[in-house]
């Protein structure tokens, strides 16, 4: 919903009702991830997408009906072998879409959620999308790390969902959780979609060079909160990096260590070291490779890489820590310009995030889209009861 929140808020603030369709579950090669939404305004205009075009028309019609009736719907769309002209996904995937009406009457807390998202405060919305009692469908909880508002119908259900949703929120994940009708850990009947609005993941770019400007643009495009840091004030200026969220003048290793100490680095953070100067990159890599982050890459030739590895080993880094380093940074795309190099770096980050191999899809058999891997702690948390 994050991508359509501004349009939804305009309708909500005006006191009107919107029809909202949200992808809540995907199977096989689905085109949009859980949380992707489409908003139908009272005047019939549309913003957002749930399938990239395959089922938009059908969802539009349902959203219009739900706006009028107020009764939410959970619909499944997939390829139909029996009817080639049925509404479905040409990619062969399956998606579940929850369609509901949203207004100040149905979702009074939405204004506060919007404030949280705008301020980069973590917040999750847990919505009942299936239940034996139709009156429970559409009920929601707004969950923050320290509090929760609303109810799913019973205190037991609220407690169970709040606990599990906070685990998802900490990981920035949106997905369906299943419970017994009253929130029992073992059981079935109630399905709850948790939409997590975690702060944007961070991209830290060290080295205020022309390549850094291109990488910052790619990072912003991919949804990262981008920081460019360099110790040289003449190069580290906002004018040179207009797409960065912040430009910091500081020694890279000192800045990174301070951010980690302050709790501003998490497992989604990506770090790109573009200085290719040992007095800058070796100290910052000493810090970066010991942090629990998603990606650490460093620019430089193969000769620079070999020299850097020797220096890092001499500084005491282990083989396991050094194996986390993507160096030379980026995928082999034959990139030459700063913009092409930034694309290769972005491609490397994406491939490592989703488990891609970086090969042409035409040469790879099987499914195009990779499943999200549930982190061990969350999986244990959700199955230990």
TrEMBL record:
InterPro entries: MoCofactor_Util/Proc, XdhC_CoxI, XdhC_Rossmann_dom. Signal peptide: none annotated. Pfam families: XdhC_C, XdhC_CoxI. Residues 203-349 form the XdhC Rossmann domain. It comes from the Bacteria. Residues 12-78, 118-180 form the XdhC- CoxI domain. This is Xanthine dehydrogenase.
